[in-house]
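Researcher: Structure for this, please.
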Amino acid sequence: MNIRRMTVAAIAALALSLSACGSGGGSGDGGETTNDLTFGTGGTSGTYYPLGGELATIFEENVEGTTVNYVESGASAENLGKIYQGEWQLGFTQSDTANNAVKGELEDLDGTKIDNVGWIASLYPEAAHIIVREDSGIESVQDLKGKKIAVGDAGSGTRAISDAILDAANISESDYTPEITDFGASTDMLADKQIDATIFVVGTPVAGLTQLAATTDVRLLGLDEETTSAIEENSGAESYDIPADAYDFLKEDVPTVSVFASLVASTDQVSEDTAYGLTKALFEHSDEVTLDVGKLITKDSAMLGVGDVPLHPGAQKYYEEEGIDLP
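Model: Predicted structure, token format:
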């Protein structure tokens, strides 16, 4: 095993370096393939980081000659940016963020077209969780006007969905105070009444919320149909219900929106054979994932959210062999 944790620099520095690289192609050092893979995940309180650790183990044990170092990160945009620069080779990303990135429409990456990333698979739906304290008096998203809200970490796909939710609720940037932080920090701040709400896009259920609810009375805000329709029209998200059995404090399903967590790889540094092996190992050993989202990882749903993101040639080879319909 050669799995280790790393904490990376802020997304602001990444955006500056991407800008310096220009918008045509990778950063220049991504031409050689490697089997020593760095895997960008997310914050330690979400689903990406522990899932990345489990997948890293699966990949190392089942793709011959491959080592996988999984790293903590700011998630989607940072992972894509690091792959573009040739620093990392694998990464988790929200499907909407990946689609914006390949089209050069991701503000976090300064509009750079990420043209060296290939789709491996959609993994599971990620639901927007809008969390407030039970004693806050906040009953709806519209009540968040004038409040202090955690809207996601810099470089995360959560920020884009948070913006879409608040825009759809007619809450402009001047109508609230944003707190740019990761999910773990935001739950601590909510418990301590340092913020009024936190919005995060994560797999359901997420341990961070379960832990928060064990010590603090909280509520999940639902979205009405009008707000949901506006979000769907202006983002890559779609309507989704958080099931009542996801968290002990829920009494009924909570309507919200969802995107898809996906796995992508460098098309410069991850060879077709390696990507084929990664894709095969992902689906043949998904039953070894101990997290709840593991049971949602199936090849039949692997194309959900792919949109304009090109398939990695190795993944495409696997899906063609398995008879999966491709876009």
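Researcher: Any notable elements?
Model: The domain at 11-123+261-322 is CATH 3.40.190.10 (D-Maltodextrin-Binding Protein; domain 2). Strands lie at 36-40, 67-71, 90-94, 117-133, 148-152, 177-180, 197-202, 218-220, 238-242, 254-266.
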